[in-house]
């Protein structure tokens, strides 16, 4: 860190000390009340006590989600400061930085040109810049390697969803999460519904037996198409794919992994994060037929089979001009939980009436309260399990085969190029059920 930044940080401590003493206590109490904080681990890194330290934040991945996460991180604790940013594209970084400097937390954005890192190794430079916390918001393909590097470097982590696009990536995330627990580092997931107050109470009532024994879960994420950037003549294959990462399975995991993982995470949550025995999926590409859409599908339907004959029915679609349905329902022996409505009907009739909150902000509020209190949050296992649920569904739909959880977890398929460089990168063919092989 430069002397100028250290002076800037030190000058802020005295002016915010009194506020932090009260706000940190409030945040920690709220987090403990919701059960979000994990047990205090021995050997944890230095405690950031109220009023004694600035938490220096680094952003890795400067797209829209990364920019939002940075603003939320700075809003979560008045003693935070964004001091480093990294992205593979300079224009992404500069746009994000400009937006943050115009935001309500602009006074704590202090990213000098010597801490603006561009390229495939930008994440390493952010980690070496003296930060305490990193926000991992690149395309999902990079999450396992970035998480491993961050934990090895002793950083607290906010990791956007999903956390992997293939089984080796999931295995890596599980290993990194275990290492984080040993080191007393927080790992907070961007699976934001678990930080929604209404969802927490709704799911707790399900777990307490309000609908009896679960017999089935149904979730839908049927929505419209998303953005795309027309290819420019000067772009290499690699640049085109990175700028349109949604449409390439090696980068996004396909949209059922990148987007539908939110719904699958709620299904996993209802099932106490116990994996299914197997899955059978179908899917295809009806309207995304042009090369601008890479090679991903535009619809999926997957049946997950759990122990005790419980089934999870999951469908998702990204097609313009179609009906939208983003909903989740948990069916039990005594009633039904309508998750998105925060409502239970049946033997017990109930509807949530508590505070709303902002789940995106709550993720960060609870993370920084945990860091300050020395009681880390570790969402590693469930964020890996939910990501693997989505990967399993994609594997089954792509191949047309019923695939067990064990088979999927032991898959050796590793998506992505052997090295990252600007140049040619062929697009794989669209997966064909019955032809595409399980690897």
Features:
9-stranded mixed sheet, disordered N terminus, 2 domains, Rossmann fold, alpha/beta, Dihydrodipicolinate Reductase, domain 2, 439 residues
Outline the structure in words.
The protein has 439 residues and is α/β, with parallel strands linked by helices. The protein has 2 domains: 3-191 and 361-377, NAD(P)-binding Rossmann-like Domain (Rossmann fold, 3-Layer(aba) Sandwich), CATH 3.40.50; 195-353 and 386-409, 2-Layer Sandwich (Dihydrodipicolinate Reductase, domain 2), CATH 3.30.360.10. The protein has 14 helices and 15 strands. The chain has helices spanning 3-33, 64-76, 90-101, 122-127, 143-152, 167-183, 197-207, 237-243, 249-252, 255-258, 261-270, 359-373, 380-399, 405-409, and strands at 55-60, 80-87, 116-118, 133-136, 156-159, 187-189, 214-223, 278-284, 299-305, 311-318, 325-332, 335-338, 343-346, 350-351, 403-404. The protein has a 9-stranded mixed beta sheet. Helix 5 links the parallel strand 4 and strand 5 (156-159). The longest helix has 31 residues, at 3-33. Mean pLDDT is 90; it is low at 1-45.
CA-to-CA gap between the ends?
A: 46 Å
Could you tell me the CATH topology label of the largest domain.
Rossmann fold
What is the CATH C-level name of the largest domain? Alpha Beta
Question: What is the domain total for the residues?
Answer: 2
Please state the CA-atom Rg, rounded to the nearest Å. 22 Å
> Looking at the structure, what is the overall shape?
globular
Give average pLDDT, whole number.
Answer: 90
Secondary-structure content class: alpha/beta
């Amino acid at each position: 860190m430069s002397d100028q930044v250290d002076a800037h940080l030190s000058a802020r401590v005295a002016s915010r000390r009194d506020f932090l003493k009260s706000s940190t206590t409030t945040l920690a109490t709220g987090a403990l009340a919701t059960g979000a904080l994990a047990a205090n681990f021995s050997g944890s890194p230095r405690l950031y006590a109220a009023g004694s330290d600035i938490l220096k934040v680094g952003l890795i991945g400067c797209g829209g989600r990364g920019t939002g996460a940075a603003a939320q991180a700075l809003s979560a604790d008045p003693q935070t400061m964004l001091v480093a940013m990294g992205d593979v594209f300079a224009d992404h970084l500069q746009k994000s930085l400009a937006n943050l400097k115009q935001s309500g937390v602009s006074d704590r954005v202090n990213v000098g040109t010597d801490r603006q890192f561009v390229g495939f190794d930008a994440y390493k430079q952010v980690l070496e810049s003296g930060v305490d916390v990193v926000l991992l918001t690149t395309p999902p393909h990079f999450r396992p390697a970035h998480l491993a590097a961050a934990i090895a470097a002793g950083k607290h982590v906010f990791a956007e969803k999903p956390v992997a696009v293939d089984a080796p990536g999931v295995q890596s995330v599980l290993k990194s999460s275990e290492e984080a627990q040993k080191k007393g580092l927080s790992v907070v997931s961007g699976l934001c519904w678990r930080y929604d107050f209404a969802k927490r109470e709704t799911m707790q009532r399900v777990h307490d037996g309000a609908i009896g024994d679960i017999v089935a879960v149904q979730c839908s994420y049927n929505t419209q198409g998303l953005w795309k950037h027309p290819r420019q003549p000067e772009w290499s294959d690699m640049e085109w794919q990175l700028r349109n990462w949604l449409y390439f399975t090696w980068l996004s995991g396909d949209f059922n992994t990148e987007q539908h993982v939110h719904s699958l995470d709620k299904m996993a949550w209802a099932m106490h994060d116990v994996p299914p025995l197997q899955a059978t999926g179908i899917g295809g590409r009806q309207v995304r037929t042009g090369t601008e859409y890479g090679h991903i599908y535009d619809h999926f339907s997957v049946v997950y089979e759990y122990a005790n004959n419980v089934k999870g029915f999951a469908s998702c679609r990204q097609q313009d001009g179609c009906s939208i349905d983003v909903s989740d329902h948990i069916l039990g022996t005594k009633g039904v939980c309508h998750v998105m409505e925060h409502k239970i009907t049946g033997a017990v009739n109930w509807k949530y009436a508590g505070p709303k909150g902002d789940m995106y902000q709550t993720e960060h509020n609870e993370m920084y309260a945990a860091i300050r209190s020395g009681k880390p949050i570790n969402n590693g296992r469930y964020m890996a399990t939910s990501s693997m649920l989505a990967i399993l569904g994609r594997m089954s739909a792509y191949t047309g085969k019923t695939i067990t959880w064990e088979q999927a977890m032991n898959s050796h398929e590793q998506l992505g190029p052997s090295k990252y460089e600007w140049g040619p990168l062929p697009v794989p063919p669209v997966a064909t059920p019955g032809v595409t092989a399980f690897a």
